[in-house]
Amino acid sequence: MKTASAGGAAAAPPAPVPSRRSVTGTRTAMAVLFLLPTLVLLGALVVYPIGYSLVRSFLDQSGSSFVGLDNYEELFTDSTIRTAVKNNLIWVVLGPTVATALGLIFAVLTERVSWGTAFKLIIFMPMAISMLASGIIFRLVYEQDPDKGVANAVWVGAHDTFAESSAFPKAHPGRESPLAPAGGGAFLTKEPVRAGTPVLLPLVGVAPDQMPDGTLPAKAAATDPGQVTGTAWQDFTRGKGVGTLKGIDGSESGYSGMRVEAVKGGEVVASTTTADDGSFTLPKEADGAKLRLPADNFREPYNGVDWLGPSFVTPAIIGSYVWMWAGFAMVLIAAGLAGVPRELLEAARVDGANEWQVFRRITVPLLAPVLAVVMVTLMINVLKIFDLVFIIAPGSSQDDANVLALQLYRSAFSDDQPGIASAISVLLLLLVVPVMLFNIRRLRREVRR
User: Fold this and answer.
1) How remote is the C-alpha of 383 from its chain's centroid?
2) What is the pTM of this model?
């Protein structure tokens, strides 16, 4: 018999309780089941290593004794690690900034040209190269020898266009020479010269096979009573005991293009340049003067910049990084540029704004979110830079180019200091976290818009 309510009507059956579902409509238990493998891997490969590194950073190098903050104190007292921290700051400032700026310039300048796509493809191609391969490439590019290193080949070529080096950098007076050092690399005759008496200026020190092309056999200068004549030549003949000292032999070469100055009272009264056979002629004003061979005749050839030396190694490696990642920045910025409303740009031009004003006041502000993404991504990337520094920097300059990731590797595997290596890893995590939090907050603001 059914129980009636006070009003006489039968009570309604209770409504069924719906099963709990996630926001996507999937049961919570099923979502957890699918996420479980990922959570296990995340815990094993990320959470556990972070926790272990944090604990290990408070232990001594053997891992048996608690040392508190001693390992962290070492980070700020050891000069090598402080250099690594300083270089990381340089990387964070220069690397992302230069790569993003170049990416922005490339994206904007190639937007309206027909070959822009091909240019972007070329700029982006280095991204297909691994850090290892890029490091090997730039180790060769920065080779000191201009005959091997592309950077110094270009640099030396440009330098020699305006300041050509001497063809006789190692030439110098031999035994019993009439020339004596005059300071600064120049040579001066010991006695004054006289018109009508040919002057002999024998030099040695240049190998016969290193004489410049076009050099002719040395020739004794003709006698001229109204002028000072002479010859500058390589006083060396192949073969032991062959040739005459301070005498011109038929197989000896003249010094062509060498500058000769006549000096009286410390002033140059006349000057000339030797012919291909080494002979020269000076006017009568040179009579009674001493002859000087200026230091420019013996200037060492310019070998370029020591790119991988202590002074330039970090900027040089940053240059190789920019070569790789400028294409990445360009592609992302170009994608953002494609979404910029063209009406705003055209309206600004109609209102009289020039291209620089359009770029600075409209294009860049509208691209600010994309530029922030690129900058943050590259900042995180350079904080853990390792490959390029390890490969490009030679052993003599590796301490000067040191970064935290490289120092972590060296402390852990070369110096057998796992406690300090763990402290460095925690420091790297602390440096990355603010950048990640900034990126998360920026993404949340973008979602709310």
Assistant:
1) 18
2) 0.73
Contacting residues for 308 by C-beta, under 8 A, at least 6 apart = 139, 142, 144, 316, 392, 393, 394, 397
Q: What is the pLDDT of residues 430-448, one digit of tens each?
A: 988 888 888 788 778 777 7
Please indicate whether residue 29 or residue 419 has the higher confidence score (pLDDT). 419
Both tokens of residue 204? 């040695």
pLDDT of residue 207: 73
- What is d(CA 275, CA 264) in angstroms, rounded to the nearest whole number? 24
Domain coordinates of the chain in residue numbers?
78-154+307-416, 179-298
Supply the pLDDT for residue 3.
Answer: 47
Tell me how far the alpha carbon of residue 441 is from its chain's centroid: 34
**Alpha carbon 56 to chain centroid, angstroms:** 36
Selection from 177, 258, 174 nearest residue 211 by Cα: 258
Residues 6+ apart with CB under 8 A from 202: 173, 174, 177, 178, 232, 233, 235, 245, 246
How far is Cα 242 from Cα 186, in angstroms, rounded to an integer? 29
How many Cα atoms are found within 13 Å in the side-chain-facing hemisphere of 249? 14
One-letter identity of residue 117: T
Q: What is the rounded CA–CA span in Å between residue 297 and residue 259?
A: 7
Mean pLDDT of 161-170: 72
| Higher pLDDT, residue 323 or 3 | 323
Split at pLDDT 50, 70, 90, the class of 263 is: very high
Assigned CATH topology for domain 78-154+307-416: MetI-like fold (1.10.3720)
Give which of 338, 336, 440, 335 is closest to 380, Cα–Cα. Answer: 440
